[in-house]
Structure formats: structure tokens, C-alpha cells
Amino acid sequence: MKSIISIFFFLVSPFLPINSFALETIEILGGKASMIPIAVTPFHEQTSLTKNQTQKINQIIDSDLRRSGLFDPLNVVGVGSYPREAMEVNYSNWSAMQAQFLILGKIEADDIDKNKIKVTWSLVDIFKQNIVMTSTLSGTLSQYRAIAHNISDTVYEKLTGTPGVFHTKIAFVKKISNAEYALTISDFDGFNQKAIVKTNKSIISPRWSPDGKKIAYVSFEKNKPVIYIQNLETGKRILLANFKGNNSAPAWSPDSKKLAIVLTYSANSQLYIINEDGSDIRQLMRTYSINTEPAWAPNGDEIYFVSDRGGNGQIYKVNINNNEVKRVTYEGKNNLSPSISPDGKLLLFISQKDGKYRVALQNLLNNQYLTLTEGPQDESPLFAPNGHMVLFTYKDYGKTTKIGTVSINGLMKTPINLGNGIVLESTWGPLKN
């Protein structure tokens, strides 16, 4: 994490929309000193309400905020009695613990339907000794985790000015056995898994459409790589690309109406654009080099991609209106798997240095470079839909492949527990899901 303090401020601050409250309370400079110290107390609850939950509501909120890398949840075990309501907060006690903010609440059974709960919670500013907000959420017991994620999202946005992603979904490929693969959707933290596609052929490169309605992926069902689109609303799928040679690496346009894909009509992989219904395919450029792994920029006019035209794998961008190509990365032996932040200011990719493959960031405004992970075999990084976290695949020195998240300040790398089976590539759904 070399030079993280000097680099990270420039990386993050240009795209953090800070509201007036957040401007007073948070200054993101990188390094643990800038993480917001926050206490999340156990919520008071009727004993029988949530006894079957694997995590208490405060533990879910704690885990959400900690994963972001912008918050430093404090250990509140052994503090003693916890306030039920904001008016009961002893500011001196929490200030002595160096808590800047406090989250507290209570869980009650619905007066009419005992299968429903009502969660009343508050966010308290310990430094200013005031109540930032109080809110009540209702739902069924099965929505317990969703309510906790909703609280995390609200706190995150209130204190950073940027929407939280704790309510969002991820999708990933799971190898269940030697003969079965499943494209699976879950909550962002791995809970509530549901397989939407099962096949006896391998699946790779899932990509969620920006509108949240579809997932494109590569399957080997035709005994070669072809591209399918799975409609999440209807359950139907279409065969998008089954052209001569290999069909791979789907990447959605920002409006979810087109995809960039990679085809190998001849010996080398080349970039094409195709409508989501499989019509109107056109080649972007014709070269003798390999062009692969497209990633569409948020402006809709540029596609970032990997090419070996300079002798090794580096990242370039092409303007789809005039086919003008520019090289983007120079640091590292090979740079692969580009992903662009939602505001278009940061480039995320895998960088090979010293024999290791690590997740790296490059500021597209000034070309500053930051390594986020230690490797040695990291793959397929993608931005969270708010641009503040990264989802990636990794392997710890020969162990089973896993997926996890890393904050864009590089301070918090957290695995996602997905249970049994080998997990391959993953993708992150949009905020609107």
C-alpha cells in the first residue's frame, strides 16, 4: 500500500458527491486514520423474534460498513447496557471510546401479524451530541437481513454523500461438481443464493446489464464458447453469438441495448459490437494483434480493451465513432481485465508485476497508479455500482479460487462466503436491483 495516503485523496475525492452534512464530518484521505470510528450497538429485541437468525442486525450492519473500508466499527462487547433510543445516549461514555457516530435501535413484533417486525433505529453524532436521524422500517422475519442492509445503505449515504451498495446483488459461476455448473445470484455478501442457470458445460464471464434485467455469459454448451443472455424477469434466454470460432468476453453498453464481444473468425481475437437481440453486428477495428476483454466507458463512446500490439498485454481505448485508439496503461509487464468506475475517472485492472497478478487502479485524470491487493493470482476485478468497492476473484497461493471485495483505498479485503463448491468468475448488479 505504498504511498496510499498521498495517492488516494486524488483518486477518490473527485467523484465523491458530498452533501452538506458529510462535508462537515468526513474527509477521505486514505489510511486508517481517515476511517470513520462508528459504534453499532446490539438492537433491543423481544427474545423470540430473531432466534433463528445467523447474525444479529447490528452484526450485519457492522460487517457492511467494515467491508467498505471507509468505516472503523468499534468493539462494543462488554460496554454494559446499550441505549434503546437516541434520547438515552450517554455522550461522555461513547466519546471516551473515540466513537464519532453511534447506531442503535430496537426490534418489535407487529401488533397484528407476529410474523412481521418493526425496526426503529437512530444515527447519533457523538462529537456534536445530536441525533442525525431516526427511522422505522417494517417487514417480515424473512426480510431481516434486507432491513439491516437498508440501514447500512442509509448510514453510508448520509455520511459519505454516495449511495451504499449493501442491498445489491452479485452473480457468480459455481462449479458444483465435475459435471455441473451453476450461474448463481445472491446478496452482495453471499446470502440468499439462487441458481438461475444449471448446465453440464462450463460457464465463464458473467456480466450484469446496467438496467439490472439481464446477465450475459459465455457457455461451452455448443462444445465451444458461445454467448447467451439470460433474462432475469422472464427466465428466458437467447443465444446472442454463435459465430465461427470462439465467442467470448461480453460487455454491456451503458444503455443496456448493445454489447461489445470478442470473436475469432481468424487466428486473432477481435472486438465487435452487437445489439442485445443479436442483430447488426459490426467489427470495431481490423488489426493483426489480439484485441480482447472489452469494457464500455460510462459515456457510451469509448471501449477499453486489452491488446498485445505493443508486444505485451496493455490496456487501450477506442472511440467507437471514429475508431481512434489510444494506449492507456504503461506500468507493469502485463495489464488485463479493465473495468471503468461509474463516473469514468478510474480504471480498474489486473496488473502483472514481479510474477504476481494483483488488482490495481489508475486515475484516468492524472495516470496515478495504486495497487490494491497482494496477489499472487487475482482475476476479473469489477467496480461496485457506486465505485467505492471492487469485486474480484483470487487464489491464495494455490488454494481454492474464491471471490471477495476490496475497498478502493486498499485497506479492507474481505472474502465472500459462498459455501461449498468452486467459485469462478463473478459480476455485480446495479444499484436499482
Q: Can you walk through the features of this model?
A:
There is one protein chain. The protein has 433 residues and is mainly beta. Helix content is 12%, strand content 42%. The protein has 5 helices and 30 strands. The chain has helices at 4-12, 20-25, 57-68, 91-96, 144-160, and strands at residues 36-40, 44-45, 71-73, 101-109, 116-125, 130-140, 169-177, 180-187, 194-199, 203-208, 214-219, 226-231, 237-241, 247-252, 258-263, 270-275, 282-283, 291-296, 302-307, 314-319, 325-327, 334-340, 346-353, 356-363, 369-371, 379-383, 389-394, 402-407, 413-415, 422-428. Strands 1, 2, 3, 4, 5 and 6 form a 6-stranded mixed beta sheet that branches. Strands 9-8-7-30 form a 4-stranded antiparallel beta sheet, with no helix packed on it. α3 crosses α5 (144-160). Mean pLDDT is 88; it is low at 1-33.
Instruction: Report mean pLDDT, rounded to a whole number.
Output: 88
Q: What distance separates the N and C termini?
A: 33 Å
Give the strand tally.
30
Low-confidence stretches: 1-33
**Major pleated sheet:** 6 strands, mixed
As a whole number of angstroms, the C-alpha radius of gyration is 23 Å
Quaternary structure type: single chain
Number of helices: 5
Query: Which band does the percent of strand residues land in?
Result: 35-45%
- How much helicity do the residues have? 10-25%
Derived structural class:
mainly beta
What would you call the shape? globular
